[in-house]
Amino acid sequence: MNEVLRLDAVTFRRSGSLILDQIDLVVHPGQHWALLGPNGAGKSTLLGFCGARTHPSSGVVEVLGRRLGRVDLQELRREIGHVDPRHPVRSPLTVVEVVLTGLTGSIEPPLRWEPSAEELARAHALIRRVGLAARSDAVWPVLSQGERGRALIARALIAEPKLLLLDEPTTGLDVAAREQLLETIAELAAADGALASVLVTHHLEELPETTTHVLLLAAGRAVASGPIEEALTTEAVTRTFAHPIEVARSGLRWSARTPRAASRR
């Protein structure tokens, strides 16, 4: 598959308001995109198209070679890994049980459903991979936010998706937990050269080291898009957030700050 994801001239309106306007995006295997912009820019709406959860008002969306509007969405969603820190687990499920729900695409384990020995082994292997082997039997309510984030990554990967979507995965994490989660994401990307991902964030500091491309959004429109070294510039980020912001890079990590002269105004 040459393209994992394609959006052509995608526009979306809700209750008469324009949310996204003529957005183009093409994601190839092995690419790791970030959607970056302020609140209300349209990032989560755009991620909904990537996850086959939302149809555009106009334009074309193709996910894993299949066009929205011509495909069984439930079937397609099973092939997409989705990490949302607001995942609404209500029951005291163990880490293993939560990870296994990635196979059924459900919040709770379905009645009378039992994983195969191979599926159970795969769940435990992924739990070890994200660093939660010692917590595999811990129940959801007692997990830290960082542990929940890593468990949700394992859940998203258990169905062996070609596309991984991460919706603000570091929400609510302290600095140490954030760094642990970003390290886990980077390790997964490095281990699977064919996996493609799209991550939503507001903050440059939350971009994993393996991020290859970025789409900057402001008020539903693309400000810049392309390889991260070309698109993530001081000028583009300043335009995106409508505020003077200086972009810096240290190794493979990014940061942003208001220039000293601008902060004195």
Brief description of this entry?
The chain has 265 residues and is of the alpha/beta class.
Please characterize this protein's 3D structure.
This protein has about 260 residues and is α/β, with parallel strands linked by helices. The chain is built from nine helices and twelve strands. It has two domains: about 1-80 and about 160-230, Rossmann fold (3-Layer(aba) Sandwich), CATH 3.40.50.300; about 90-160, no CATH class. Helix 3 runs parallel beside helix 5 (about 145-155), helix 4 (about 115-130) packs across helix 5 and helix 5 packs parallel to helix 6 (about 175-190). The protein is globular and about 50 Å long. The mean pLDDT is about 90.
State the total count of DSSP E strands. Answer: 12
**Uncertain regions: pLDDT < 50 for 5+ in a row?**
none
How many domain units?
2
Biggest beta-sheet profile: 6 strands, mixed
User: Which structural class do you get from the secondary structure elements?
Assistant: alpha/beta
Q: How would you spell out the order of helices and strands?
A: EEEHEEHEHHHEHEEEHHEEH
N- to C-terminal distance: 51 Å
Portion in strands: 25-35%
CATH homologous group name of the largest domain: P-loop containing nucleotide triphosphate hydrolases
CATH architecture of the largest domain: 3-Layer(aba) Sandwich
Radius of gyration: 19 Å
Mean pLDDT reading = 90
Look up the CATH topology of the largest domain: Rossmann fold
Identify the CATH class of the largest domain: Alpha Beta
What form results from the Cα inertia axes? Answer: globular
Task: Give me the number of helical elements.
Answer: 9
Can you give the helix content as a percent range?
Answer: 25-40%
Largest sheet: spatial strand order: 6-7-8-3-9-10
